[in-house]
Amino acid sequence: MSEQLLEVSGLKKYFPITGGVFDRKKGEVKAVDDVSFYVKKGETLGIVGESGCGKSTTGRLLMRLIEASEGKIVFEDKDITSMSKSELRKIRRDIQMVFQDPYASLNPRHSVEKILEEPLIVHGIGTKEERKKKVREMLKVVGLSSYHAKRYPHQFSGGQRQRIGIAKALMTKPKLIIADEPVSALDVSIQAQVLNLMKDIQKEFQLTYIFIAHDLGVVRHISDRVGVMYLGRLIELADSEELYENPKHPYTQALLSAVPIPDPDIKRETTLIQGELPSPANPPSGCAFHTRCSQCMDICKTTRPEERNLNGHYVACHLFKE
Ligand code: SF4
User: Fold this and answer.
1) For residue 73, what is the DSSP state?
2) How much is the average pLDDT of 203-207?
3) Nearest-CA neighbor of 184 among 11, 56, 3, 321?
């Protein structure tokens, strides 16, 4: 569990804002702004934050579905950021993605068999017979039956469609799965089933996960470590238990206070986050959270807090010194 599978350093993605008659660049949205982290083999790293914090952009950058403005992504000692298209195609066998909306990611005109076979065809894996056998095997792995292979996406419920999305991601035997809000669109009762399935297949296939979510409650039981993003920056990262028991950053504390506790005897004060999320096109100076932080000091308004390492608990906030 200690070996690193992925290392991200200084990752940035700035989208230009253009306008006017000549479509000139007027500014930029810093969707991901200097993000660094690593993922160990076999672990699940949760990445959490409000919509617009850059978590999904980070996921897409890791797959190189979009190009980074700066930074390095190293997967199994190979730098993904500088790879040619053909090298990248090979590596995509090892890194797969599960999307929030399985309906949008599954071609409605194709049968489940065709959908699941496609990644094998793209990567030139197996004969026709072997591919069909694999489709049926994988349907069983995700809790569906072989007769489902002939059906079409609209004939399934949301939870079943996400199972098909997971099966599709598994077809090429990947090492890393980036799951972008995989249960957000599902009913709460179905969420737990899909999360349990993901946990089971992680063990069975020795998978490593990056699990992106907007809710700290969802990632708690699946993540070994959790990182919290705010306006394109990673502001806190720690072992899951440590982060939930001892959150340090005021933003994480506020997010956690909003997560319901199943035990009615435990009372927790809810800390409301003041104000609206500022625009990533015009983030506040200094600490990007200072406009909403109840503990804001003068230095927070002018100076961006460096990331501190407090015995493996990383936090970027002026309240903490190493
Ligand atoms: Fe609040 Fe300052 Fe810490 Fe930012 S650096 S979270 S404004 S205390």
Assistant:
1) E
2) 95
3) 56
Separation of CA 313 and ligand 1 centre (Å): 17
CA distance 274 to 296: 12
Q: What is the pLDDT of residues 2-46, one digit of tens each?
A: 589 999 999 999 999 888 777 788 889 999 999 999 999 999 999
Over residues 71-83, mean pLDDT: 95
Alpha-carbon distances of 67 from 17, 32, 58, 59, 188, rounded to whole Å? 17, 12, 10, 11, 34
- Is the distance from the beta carbon of residue 212 to the nearest atom of ligand 1 less than 6 Å? no
Q: Which atom of ligand 1 is nearest to the CA of 294?
A: 1
250 lines ligand 1 (CB under 6 A): yes
Q: Which residues, 6 or more positions from 147, have their beta carbon under 8 angstroms from its beta carbon?
A: none
For the beta carbon of residue 73, count every other beta carbon within 10 angstroms.
Answer: 22
Are the C-beta atoms of residues 290 and 300 closer than 8 Å to each other? yes
Q: For 131-152, how does the pLDDT look when each residue is reduced to its tens digit (9 = 90+)? A: 999 999 999 999 999 999 999 9
| pLDDT band at residue 268 under the 50/70/90 scheme | low
